[in-house]
Amino acid sequence: MPEPRSTLDSDLNKLTISSSQSARGPSRYATNQKTVEKDEDGFEKVSYRHEKKNHQSSNRYGPPSESFRDHSSNARPQITSSYARSVERPHLKQSCLPPGERDPVVERYEKSKGHVYDKDLYRPGMIIRVWLHEQDYAATSTGANLTVLAPRNDTKTRTNTDAGPVLSTQRKMIVLSMFEDHYLAVPLFTHNGNGLNFKTKPSEFVSVFDHRVKPKPSPLGPWRPLVTESLQEDVDRFSPVTTAHITYALPRRYNLPVVKEGHLAPKSTNYLIGLYNTYAPKKLLDPRTGKPYE
Length: 294
What we know:
Elements: H1 5-13, E1 15-18, E2 21-22, E3 25-26, E4 30-38, E5 44-52, H2 82-87, H3 104-113, E6 126-135, E7 158-161, E8 164-178, E9 182-189, E10 205-209, E11 226-231, E12 243-245, E13 250-253, E14 259-264, H4 266-279
Parallel strand pairs: 10-11
Antiparallel strand pairs: 1-4, 2-3, 4-5, 6-8, 6-14, 7-8, 8-9, 9-12, 9-13, 10-12, 11-14
């Protein structure tokens, strides 16, 4: 016997629609149940019921994606490489990581980039490390007293430009004097470990000694050696043939990044300034009278 009409209408008016099988595919993590009912006046009444699934225990649609797997310390494989641990957190600088998790290569690279410091922080005698870019004279001329010299097979630090090759190298420098927008600094050289052996005028150089090196090496050239007073812990010890090129002071702007490495001792700073003033330009003399031009 067929059911009464009123019962059939009541069943048709109550509709249950599941959104778990949507056009975009099944949802693994939640199911939304939408229920539509009609009241006595014929108006629709909509209600929702949200069920959250346990994606770790449910395998209805296969294993959970990699991003939802258990990443607790117990589930992680043991990482023994400090570099691997540092790569896990690439958004952190090496200086922000614990010392045991730092990669020495990446840390050294970060330190080599340096920082831009306010000009008020510069002082005579400050030892800095900078990227120095100069024309590679060895590739464009011969017979000159070359300061810039790149090995012929060096392709990492030499850049070919329309104006000729440029040598880029990290150079230690000592600040001499500061001005409004720039400062003067003299570069340090070891000349590939040769010291002043091939220099025609050694008096233009002065030895620079590392105060951490004992005993002190013999100075090169005719001048009393300069001695550092303080150096950062990660700064390598100076070579015993390190010299400062007194007459090769270079201007640099304050808005260029530098790496601060330390300072000369105050007496050495004054001695360097005095040597520089010895070679500073003098007044032009009139050859007829031997007196300066007025």
